[in-house]
């Protein structure tokens, strides 16, 4: 086949679109979310956590049983008997509703504990890293000294002094858990502080609050969030542990820890009493850890493409 | 002449603490540096790594506090003023950093980066940030659309342009260029240097240009100061220093720079030995262990910066002897 000149036509180029930017700029968070979406484990974790929290919030509202309603005619029922999906415990209380009330308490303790840890850790570590020098030295030695205190001893002591209760448990957990957070924040701030863009902000005459708020914190937030997603399951687990040894929230309130503790007593005859709370704890812990892993990968700027 | 910046006998000693918190040693990073820069002028500062060039720049910016000495900005001593006052005069002195990859906040768009100086010093009204950012971007040869991007979307040279735009945003009188091109490709270096030159003509700013590339210094500077171990050993009009270097260290530095001319014979004056530790600098003239013309006096007495002509100063005993007669007229 012969090609003739007439068969061709110059279409030229469209100058109006030559400067057009095809790929939009992504902010840090958009980019992180884009990468997190590609991680199936993290997405599964988010789905599981959403389901767990929705059940925790709504199931006790709509259940025909309350977490403290006893039915002594129907104690230690098997799962499924008379509408008790997870069965009943030794006082005939519906285990299904108790697991979700327990989820409320456990998640509340986990999240508040982690938030308190975050606030104290950011302020303490931030001041220490930003001020540097002798201030940093003294503040970090204080952390070193507090690190020496065994966690369990400290918590048992606090609970014995203040009496058991939700607030005491949260306080006991966050009283020492802020230490590693403070160290992480300090380390991050120290690293970012010496970067030239922080010096540039100083030569521009930025006030300390602008430096910390606009330049330092946004640049260290990634590792902090990752640490946070790991400290939530830590707090949940510690609460379970405290409840298990009898230091947790008082009856008839339930947390996953207290449920597991009572279930453990009936393990041979009625294994479902331990099984369901344990599955809930494991699911929550696993999900938070997978989410933390995913976030660590998503927020790491070195993995940015 | 109208001095924008004048530095007198600037010193910065860093303490090295021993384990017990006692001062064990002092590093004399900058040891008695004096110079002045006039309006629209560029002073180049050269020297080996660790000779105190960058520290000098940071002292003038008051990013670190000098041990002693005076810094005058248009005749006003900025070394002794309080932090709050300092913040307001920071707009007159700006810096362009060496590494364009770490000099821009990775979490901010270019528009945010360029608006920050405007909002800190209230250069223009809030409603005019957009217009001003566009003007700044145009000034450094970037397009308006670049304002929406993040630093990681730019090349090194483009980032350096953004850094320059940020420094220009406060309309400073004096900019410290801390090796602004040494992290860039050679082809991009000249673009940035020309941009800095054009901006200087347009805005009448003065530069302190810190570099270790002699070709770069010669291209951009009016005056040049050669630093060795925290001291200026030779200073003068750039052509005079480059054509007729007096100090043996300057000679060695100049002969080490390759000249792109195949017919010019290579006469290398190779320096022997390493740069001595600033913790324990040699006695007398700090350069004497590496100097091939060393005299007895060099070990004992520190030479001071002396005029050998109207625009040329050298700190060397040899020059003292050679120019003894002619000096009186400039003293």
What does this structure look like?
Chain A has a single domain (31-303), classed as Orthogonal Bundle (MetI-like fold), CATH 1.10.3720.10. Chain A contains 10 helices and no strands. Chain A starts with 27 loop residues before the first helix and ends in a 6-residue tail after the last helix. By secondary structure, chain A is mostly helical. Chain A has helices at 28-37, 40-62, 95-131, 133-148, 151-162, 166-193, 196-203, 208-244, 256-265, 272-299. The longest helix of chain A is centred in the middle third of the chain and has 37 residues, at 95-131. Chain B is α/β, with parallel strands linked by helices and 331 residues long. Chain B has one domain (3-259, 267-279): P-loop containing nucleotide triphosphate hydrolases (Rossmann fold, 3-Layer(aba) Sandwich). Chain B has 12 helices and 12 strands. In chain B, strands 6-7-8-3-9-10-12-11 form an 8-stranded mixed sheet, with helices on both faces. In chain B, strands 2-1-4-5 form a 4-stranded antiparallel sheet. Chain B is globular, with a radius of gyration of 21 Å. The model of chain B has no long low-confidence stretch (mean pLDDT 84). The A-B interface holds A 19, 21, 25-28, 195-197, 199-207, 210, 214-215, 218-219, 301, 304 and B 58, 61, 63, 86-88, 90-91, 93-95, 97-99, 102-109, 116-117, 120-121, 143, 145, 148-150, 152-153, 163, 166, 170.
